[in-house]
Amino acid sequence: MPHTWDPDRYLTYADERGRPFVELVARVGAASPATVVDLGCGPGNLTTLLRERWPDADIRGLDSSPEMVEKAQAADPSIAFEVADLRTWAAEGQPVDVLVSNATLQWVPGHLDLLPALVSRVSPGGWIAFQVPGNFDEPSHTIRRDLAAEEPYAAHTREVAVPSSHDPAAYLEALTSLGCTVDAWETTYLHVLTGPDPVFTWVSGTGARPTLQALPGDLRPTFEDEFRRRLRAAYPERDGRVVLPFRRVFAVGHRS
Ligand SMILES: C[S@@+](CC[C@H](N)C(=O)[O-])C[C@H]1O[C@@H](n2cnc3c(N)ncnc32)[C@H](O)[C@@H]1O
Known about the structure:
Low-confidence stretches: none
Mean pLDDT: 95
Distance between the termini: 39 Å
Number of strands: 7
CATH class: Alpha Beta
Helix content: 25-40%
Number of helices: 12
Radius of gyration: 19 Å
Bound molecules: S-adenosylmethionine
Shape: globular
Number of domains: 1
Structural class: alpha/beta
Order of helices and strands: HHEHEHEHEHEHHHEHHHE
């Protein structure tokens, strides 16, 4: 079931969402790549960091969301952004020197099976680097799943897109078997959030969007109220601060 993205809502926590991108790209050893592609570039604010790192490269960003690409196009005119599905992109085309995908592959069902096609689009000596959330068993996700499975919501939410990912070892094995030298790891960030219902604000910009958008207008407010209530219990506020632990999984492959 398709859902849409809201770039401005997504950018609410731009700093927290951007840090893993910086830490991912820091492990890419390419000195002066000719071509760099950001798959699932979103609003493009992070793609522009690739321009700072590699000023002379031909940098491209693609994303399946027209709303995201429109925002990205305003971010940096020196980068070519386009609306495209990364699965189509993976299927054919010239090799690139650096392939980056941040917080996107979790939305591609069976993405482990896509890695051979993605690696085949990396030139010999090139790099593939991606990061995916690894927090799908945390309350921020389980509360949404449990509530969505209750009536009267279940009838509307059965078909929604469900993000998923693997442990670092699975990506290490997959990329190694494809001829890469691999650096894979995980990090749990402790995001300190403020303001009213900050965890709801966070998830409604990303992982909860398909569920929220699948609900009819008369059910969505009651769902959101109950979702907020359960999130407040799971992530209590202390002295005006709410701590959101967020595990992320990283993999960088150097193609020999
Ligand atoms: C959580 S956002 C990440 C955006 C950006 N990479 C970042 O780190 O800020 C996920 C993005 O993946 C895009 N996306 C999901 N599935 C995709 C696909 N099959 N092809 C291209 N983009 C996709 C969405 O449209 C969305 O912009």
